[in-house]
Amino acid sequence: MNVTLTPLPPLLPLPRVTAAVLAENCDWSVTGIPSTNPLQQAIDLEAQGIAIQWQSATAIAETLPIAESPAYQWPQNPTILALIPHLRCETWLRRCLNSLCQQTQPPTHIVVIDDASTTPPLSIVQDFPTVTLLTTAQQVGPYRLIQSAIEATDYDAYLFQDADDWSTVDRLEILLRTARHHGAELVGSQEIRILEPELVAQAVGYPLDVNQALKQSPGHPLLHPTSLVTRDLVQRLGGFATGLKFGGDTEFLLRAHWVARIVNTLRYCYFRRKRPDSLTTAIATGLDSPDRKALLQTLKQRAIGHYATPPDIADLQPLQTADPIVLTHICGPSLRWSGS
User: Fold this and answer.
1) C-alpha span between 104 and 61 (Å, rounded)
2) From the CB of residue 49, how many other CB atoms can be counted at a distance below 10 Å?
3) d(CA 231, CA 176)
4) Rounded to 5 degrees, what angle do the CA atoms 189, 18, 161 make?
5) What is the 3-state secondary structure (H, E, C) of the chain?
6) Is 0.90 surpassed by the pTM of this model?
7) Which backbone phi and psi does 20 adopt, to 5 degrees?
8) Separation CA 221–CA 18 (nearest Å)
9) Cα torsion for 50, 170, 104, 88, to the nearest 10°?
10) pLDDT one digit per residue (tens) for the chain, 340 residues
């Protein structure tokens, strides 16, 4: 059975400065099944072992000019590692992995990095022979996981993906094409946000020109798990703020735009699940929690300080760091380890 689902967001201009909900409830185009309730039908089919192909959709946007500088020259055939931090996402991990294994331009490798679960998701990952599972001995949070993996491996670029979300089948192909066209070292996509438990699909738009957006305000112009980043950029900036359990994506972006070209593609390539008890909705770590608000205020004040400082002398090192952690191989292909 060949089943495809394509979101139908409205053709509206994208925001210029920060993320904005463009549609509260998107329609769907469906092939292969009756389309009375596409999202619920997808869940039912996946329970039967039938993988869904999720297609991308476009938004209306002005043509983004190619920046003269800085411009990154991508290798002809870049090596790319898809990074999936994992903690208590077994319910959704299979759809996540299906979407990455179906890519029209496959990543070189795909790795799930389990954050010291009592029982790592071995039985799920073993159903995907091309996927590697690593684990850690202590729970450290997503940014220390991904930074440890970046430091321990040797790929040209890294594709981010949250374990409870999923991608369109052409996501990497579109991100890489967009990055090449604009000489960008960090590129994200538009977002289809799935509200649970209602199973409502919202269209969330992001500015095409992230550099220009951040010149105006330290807002939220790119969604980290939608993005592809070069190893060169991560190394130049000293990596992610591994001492942070949340907010490390915003912290990285507010430093990166000073030294790299950053853009979003005009296509909706990423499905983000908004569910109770995730890192951004839980009481202790959610967007409205006191700790999150305090960190965001610190990051914004630091970013505002950079506006008055020439980029060549600004402090663009991570706000807070921790030592790399040991990653233990559980199953799957060997990765391109640095120094090997």
Assistant:
1) 24
2) 8
3) 14
4) 35
5) CCCEEEEECCCCCCCCCCCEEEECCCEEEEECCCCCCHHHHHHHHHHCCCCCEECCEECCCCCCCCCCCCCCCCCCCCCEEEEEEECCCHHHHHHHHHHHHCCCCCCCEEEEEECCCCCCCHHHHCCCCCEEEEECCCCCCHHHHHHHHHHHECCCEEEECCCCCEECCCHHHHHHHHHHHHCCCEEEEEEEEEECCCCEEEEEECCCEHHHHHHHCCCCCCCHHHCEEEHHHHHHCCCCCCCCCCCHHHHHHHHHCCCCCEEEEEEEEEEEEECCCCCCCCCCCCCCCHHHHHHHHHHHHHHHHHHCCCCCCCCCCCCCCCCCCCCEEEECCCCCECCC
6) yes
7) -150, 140
8) 4
9) -50
10) 788 999 999 988 999 999 999 999 999 999 877 777 889 989 989 999 888 999 999 988 766 666 655 578 999 999 999 999 999 999 999 999 999 999 999 999 999 999 999 999 999 999 999 999 999 999 999 999 999 999 999 999 999 999 999 999 999 999 999 999 999 999 999 999 999 989 999 999 999 999 999 999 888 999 999 999 999 999 999 999 998 888 899 999 999 999 999 999 999 999 999 977 666 655 555 566 677 677 777 766 776 666 656 566 567 888 788 988 999 999 999 999 987 5
Paired tokens of 167? 């991608």
